[in-house]
Amino acid sequence: MYEKTLSRKTVYEGLILNVEMLDVELEDGRKSKREIVQHGVAVAIIPQLPDGRFVFIRQFRKPMERVCFEVVAGNCDPGEEEAVSAGRELKEETGYDFQSLELLGPIFPSVGYCTERIDVFFADIAEEQGATSFDEDERIETVILSEEEMDERIRSGGVADAKTLAAWMLYKVHRSNR
Fold first, then answer.
1. Which of 55, 78, 123, 141 has the fewest CB atoms in 10 Å of its CB?
2. What is the pLDDT of residue 176?
């Protein structure tokens, strides 16, 4: 299966994403259109304290008009290595530094219309929490949960964010293989 791109036009250029309209030709020769959100690489982190509990965040998300429970995450700066981004985002959003960092794998949040890739990391973190340095328009609260509490939060519908659900699944699969 393949679609040949016949033309591409950028219809919106934003701060963190662009939108393109593509004319494509399908394998059988029919023509169609594709709307694609171009987004750079991002990272998500599952940070674990020495006592085995995990650090998550809560923040208001305007598209959802509500406070969302999420893994620590953020966009990579241009030219920044993903592991460097993960350490920076962890420190900025939670105040914790990592002692070790392991790539669990990539996720693609919405393959039907968006190019975003999120590299998911597991981080062993230090006990001491330092100062945070949120972006000026961010308001973030840290939440510390045991594995059982996180599993129950998912079972009860308290986690709706796709990257958080996928990141937690990657963590669980990798942990069972250790």
1. 78
2. 77
